[in-house]
From TrEMBL:
Pathway(s) it belongs to: Amino-acid biosynthesis; L-lysine biosynthesis via DAP pathway; DL-2,6-diaminopimelate from LL-2,6-diaminopimelate: step 1/1
Site (Could be important to modulate the pK values of the two catalytic cysteine residues): 163, 212
Pfam families cross-referenced by the UniProt entry: DAP_epimerase
Residues that, per the record, bind substrate: 11, 63, 73-74, 161, 194, 212-213, 222-223
Catalytic activity as recorded in UniProt: (2S,6S)-2,6-diaminopimelate = meso-2,6-diaminopimelate
Main localization, broad class: cytoplasm
E.C. no: 5.1.1.7
Quaternary structure and interacting proteins, as annotated: Homodimer.
Record's protein name: Diaminopimelate epimerase
Length: 277
């Protein structure tokens, strides 16, 4: 299997062209093998580029544990760069079919070189049944959540995949690796959940760490950053256009007047190779 290893702010992926090569039927097991950092290539996820009947290309992504999430913000930026540079789609703006709907990345070029990718990530889902979360009311904004006897204040947002956001005073001192997995599998989150811990710097900047469903703590999460700008605005913490500082670098987010969330950030190729299935 030929692949390209890519990363977006340290959130890394094995990207595979499924147009031109056949893959095993059990893609979850394949993802577990190739993403293993000792016995495989090593990555947070396996990204497949496939033909689509409703968009220019189709994206499927599998986490390192073999589960298939609806979407991945850093993954779609990597896919967009790959699709353009491999010649699968020669346009700088095109559509991508995902389990979260059809999204539209736009490549930012300077002198023929891709300097970043801006993605229209669509509209946030705020109603509990669409996230899904088992809270009462029409939105989950500043709601209490009890975890092993401790109470937290949470906001829930879906960007095609579910997110639970908690505002903290100092994100560097937050026990992400111990608290994240407890919240991920909390009974109020029937499809499990991604957990973002957010420190407000000012009205235009925040720091964020993330515990990703199926992957653990990662250096960055694109959909988590999208959910962050929405949650910050809903709670009156920031403006609707902010810079999110993640462990792997920065993303620029805008919750636009048309209710769409736009994400801008980098995508880089690391190396290419052949994996023996």
């Amino acid at each position: 299997m030929e692949f390209l290893k890519m990363q977006g702010l340290g959130n890394d992926f094995v990207v595979v062209d499924a147009y031109r090569q056949e893959l095993p039927e059990d893609l979850g097991s394949l993802a577990q093998k190739v993403c293993h950092r000792q016995f495989g290539i090593g990555a947070d996820g396996l990204v497949l580029v496939l033909p689509s009947e409703k968009a220019a290309v189709k994206m499927r992504i599998f986490n390192a544990d073999g589960s298939e999430p609806e979407m991945c913000g850093n993954g779609i930026r990597c896919l967009a760069k790959y699709v353009y540079e491999s010649g699968l789609c020669p346009r700088t703006e095109f559509t991508v079919e995902t389990l979260a709907g059809v999204l539209r990345p736009e490549l930012m070029l300077e002198k023929g070189r891709i300097t970043g990718v801006k993605v229209d990530m669509g509209e946030p889902r705020l109603s509990p049944d669409r996230i899904p979360v088992l809270f009462a009311g029409d939105k989950v904004v500043g709601q209490p959540l009890e975890v092993q006897g401790e109470k937290y204040v949470v906001t829930a947002v879906s960007m095609g995949n579910p997110h639970c956001l908690i505002f903290v005073d100092d994100v560097s001192q937050t026990p992400v690796k111990s608290l994240g997995p407890l919240i991920e599998v909390h009974p109020l989150f029937p499809a499990k959940i991604n957990v973002e811990f957010v420190e407000i710097v000012n009205k235009k900047e925040v720091k964020m760490r993330v515990w990703e469903r199926g992957a653990g703590e990662t250096l960055a999460c694109g959909t988590g950053a999208c959910a962050t700008v929405v949650a910050c605005a809903l709670n009156g913490k920031t403006d609707r256009e902010i810079t999110v500082h993640l462990l792997g670098g920065d993303l620029i987010l805008e919750w636009a007047p048309n209710n769409h969330v736009f994400m801008t950030g980098p995508a880089e190729a690391v190396f290419e190779g052949r994996y023996f299935i």
